[in-house]
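Many introductory courses stop at the sequence. We go one step further.
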Amino acid sequence: MRFRYTEFDPERHGSQKSIFEELMDLFEQLLQHTAGDAEEALDWLKQLDEEYGLTDEAEGMGMDDFIEELKKRGYLREDPDGEGGVQITAKAERALRQRSMEDIFDQLQKGSPGDHETPHTGMGPERLPETRDWRFGDDPNMMDVTGTLSNSFRRTGIDNWNLREDDFRVHETNHHTSMATVLMIDLSHSMVLYGEDRITPARKTAMALSELIMNQYSKDTLDIVAFGNEAWEIEVKDLPYLEVGPYHTNTRAGLRRAREILHRRRNRNKQIFMITDGKPSCHFEKGRMYRNAYGLDRRIVNKVLDEAVVCRRQGIPITTFMIARDPHLQDFVRELTEANQGRAYYASLDNLGEFIFEDYVRNRRKRMR
């Protein structure tokens, strides 16, 4: 008997997903663009259903049925203000983070990121071909059996064979370390100007990175700093709801807040990731805001560069992900990178997540002290 295998074609063979799963996928995508606003996302979904017939009443999954199923499965809850609306739950927030991570990983090359490896040997799960003498506390699973027996036979011969402590050999392993990361997100008004939605990919990337760290890098830490006129910390549960405001760009305040956070962290390796699309346009002097939205004002830029130098002296590299192509803004990023001796990427909105994930997972900027 012969079998002929062909590539799966949803139109010929039918979809592998249920109507609920397909609607859920679309609902999650809409939530990414509405900053977690369930009411707005459902309104868009209803409009799409009216135009394209997404639901199927005959199979018991109309739009009202879908909403009720979301509530039943714990993704939606009634608005606590009693106005008759709905909100997403903590379970839905986790689902958004998971989806964000999966979306970005789908675009990366296959392979598990594992832990952060360093060029140093030490305690880690991946054995190296090099071996050394056994020391108290070494993992028995890393025993070099061949080398150990060879040492014993050379010392005693076959007739009087026995083992002593100095016969034992163990494999070296990659030393694994932990990383403290602060992700800075620009929430200035320019993130939604010029016909481009820049905040959605930034928000999505932050959710994905937090999910990655919480699930696969348990010893790492991730803190989120939003910056506009000022800088403030964001909790993981707040990420789906990040929105831009009528803000200028206080990059200096963002870097300062990030540096203060990292000062409290006990991780040996520390870094700042900064997502921005614009130049620094304000800072505070003697308690009052000085702002200039036109051109690169050296009075503002120099303060940012000073902060970058302080970060460098404290061993904190800054990796800037620039999502704007203006040559003047790129000049600023180059100055910032040189002052900090960090790194810069000029990423598009489509590959922002890929850039950040690859940089984080490969951990090229780690340093051992």
